[in-house]
TrEMBL record:
Residues 20-117 form the Histidine kinase/HSP90-like ATPase domain. The keyword ATP-binding applies. One of its GO terms (molecular function) is ATP binding. Residues 144-182 are annotated as: Disordered. This is ATP-binding protein. Keywords: ATP-binding, Kinase, Nucleotide-binding, Serine/threonine-protein kinase, Transferase.
Amino acid sequence: MTSATLDSQLRTATYHLSAPADATTPRLARKFVTGALEATRHPDLIESALICVSDVVTNVVQHARVNGLSVDVTAYDRHVVIAVCDANAARRPYRRQAADADDEHGRGLMLVEALSHASGVSLVWDALNVIGKSVWFELREGGGLGEDEGGDEQHDENGDRLPPGRAPECAQRYGFPGPRGR
């Protein structure tokens, strides 16, 4: 299922995809993100977005042990926040210290971190229980940190970076509230 909303006051557009967690989903997510970024006039962000979303969605498919996932793209004037959500908070991604040259795995989250302005994992709460997670990343026009940017990041109690602006919308798509702490 896909949907789109437009918030004219904040000049944002949010696109949502719900999909099964299977081997075809990374390809579907790449097509979805491409369409959302083209529709919101962010063509310069497509290449980095495709690398990042492909890795994050593949991680969910291979490691989260869930039946489905969601991808949200929230586009602002000069940046986008992309979030991939699933309902298994117990299986959180981690970044390896270093992958050997012949390793086939272990570089994805380092790529996401290198290509994005900010990235992190937010837990999804239902009252007092953690019931999911959102792996998100922010891409900005012009790439990376600008001279007048940075230093504005907020972190949760575990030291994970919180998403800029509004929290990713995917938690609400699953029918539960978003991460706390902002």
